[in-house]
Predict the 3D structure of the following.
Amino acid sequence: HGESHPLLAMALSVRASLLERLGRMAESTDAYHSALAAQRRIIGPKHPAYAATAVNYAEHLLRVERWRDAAAQAREVLALRGNSLDDSSYPVQGALIYLGRALAHMDSAKAGETFVREARALRMQSLPAGHWLIAAVDGSLGEVLTLDGRFADAEQLLLAAESRVREVRGAESVAVADQRKRLVALYKRWGKLAEAAKWQQRLDKKSA
């Protein structure tokens, strides 16, 4: 198929995601760069598949704590909103979440909360009640509220999110680990170190 076939761009995107799951973060970053460059060349930056890779890269940048880059990547995706992407799409909702989380880590928790709540409202409209992806965005909201010092509200959201995501996705899933990391961070900031240790133990047990 050569270097101009869409399947090549898709394969590069899948490789970037797999490397991230293996914890090979620097290699994953490079793979995302290659995937996005290939997709820009082959299908163009307005294609929904490009947006899907771009929003996954925004999440990756959050995982490596590159908050400003994550925000910029999310904004690039949101620039396609109403053009090649509609509000029910994964890239739009994901970009809103990742932009909100990035802003919260950049000391703009109130602005970040607005974006995450918008994503939650869109998921409520586009998904059936009780869907685990709604619980997952509640976990993101809990992360933002933690950074804003609203610990009791964050705790309520994060405990419910961890429970629902675990029920649907299974205790070994990455999505559950994400919620448990947020609970550890919450309890450390709140000064509830025994609770933080409990959730850290559950995280460590998963990765053992």
In short: The first helix runs from residue 6 to 21. The two ends are 41 Å apart (CA to CA).
